[in-house]
Known about the structure:
It is a single chain. The protein is an alpha+beta fold. It has three helices and nine strands. It has one domain (2-94, 103-138): Nucleoside Triphosphate Pyrophosphohydrolase. Strands 1, 2, 3, 4, 5, 6, 7, 8 and 9 form a nine-stranded mixed beta sheet that branches. The longest helix is centred in the middle third of the chain and has 13 residues, at 47-59. The chain is globular. The two termini are 19 Å apart.
Amino acid sequence: MTQNGIVLVASVSIFKDDEVLIIKENKPTAIDKWNFPSGRIENGEDILYTACREVKEETGFDVKLNSTTGVYNFISSTNDQVILFHFTGEVTGGSLNLEEDEIIDSKWIKVNDLMKFEDEELREPRVLKKIIKNLFKGNMHSISLFNE
C-alpha cells in the first residue's frame, strides 16, 4: 500500500531445518536481485495476512508465521519511503511454484551464507543485511506484537 509516499511491505524468511528460502526477483525495480518473499500491504489488509499471501503468491508455499525480526524504515532505490514488517515462518503446505515472470530462481541457504552476498546481488542491501544480521544473531520477537 502507498499512502502519502509511504510504501508498507510485509516480508518473510521461511525456515526449513537450518536453512532459509531466498528468491531471485525479476521485477522492473529489482532485476536479478535476491530477496525474501515480500510485497505491498493492500488497503485494509492485515499485516500477518499480507505476509502469508505474498509467500503463497511468490513461492507456492503456505506458511505459519513464528516471529518477527522487526520493522525497518528506509528510503528505497526508487526513492520511496518504505516501512517493512519482517517475519519468520515455516512451511505448512503447498509446493514450490515460483510466481511466473516476477520470480526467476530460489534456493534454500544457511543464514551464515546469506552474509556472504555482495550488495549488488541483493534488493535493498542495507535493509536486507540488517535483517540477515538479526536472523544470524537470533534477534527475533514474539509474533504477538502484531494483534490479529
